[in-house]
Amino acid sequence: MRQQPESQNMTEVTIRKLTDADTPAVLHLVQLDSADAPKGELLGAEIEGTLVAFAPIAGGRTVADPFSRTSELAALLSLRTAQLRGRQPRRRRFGGLFGRDRGRPARPSAPAPPGAGDRLLSQPLR
């Protein structure tokens, strides 16, 4: 039987609301990350049952274990907390395809030539 390389091993990730029972793990992460104690409801990310990151649902800084790879989990927490608040997460300035909002039509790159109205003029081929 052939073993899979370590990079292909599956890891169980759980995103859930934290309870009072999670207070010791939250305080441990606060200490590791040199963060302030959180307030309000929290959403946590666990890897195989161990809390490695959390974020306030009302918005705020994600606190994570600095000794673990948690950047992807922080992004998941940001997305999920935004969903729970009922709005989209804040977009990056130059995100997406050229950063244009897909809900609005693109502005024309140049105005139509004089006398063309709303159509472009074309020159016959010679």
Structure overview:
This protein has a domain at 10-85: Gcn5-related N-acetyltransferase (GNAT) (Aminopeptidase, 3-Layer(aba) Sandwich). It contains two helices and four strands. The chain has a four-stranded antiparallel beta sheet, sandwiched between helices. Strand 2 and strand 3 (50-56) form a beta hairpin. The longest helix is centred in the middle third of the chain and has 15 residues, at 71-85. It is α+β, with helices and mostly antiparallel strands. The chain has helices at residues 23-32, 71-85, and strands at 13-17, 42-47, 50-56, 63-64. The model is unreliable at 96-100 (pLDDT under 50).
Helix and strand sequence: EHEEEH
Low-pLDDT stretches are 96-100
Question: What integer value in Å does the Rg equal?
Answer: 24 Å
How much β-strand is present in the residues? 15-25%
Structural class: alpha+beta
- CATH homologous superfamily label of one domain: Gcn5-related N-acetyltransferase (GNAT)
Across the major sheet, the strand order is 1-2-3-4
Give the number of helices: 2
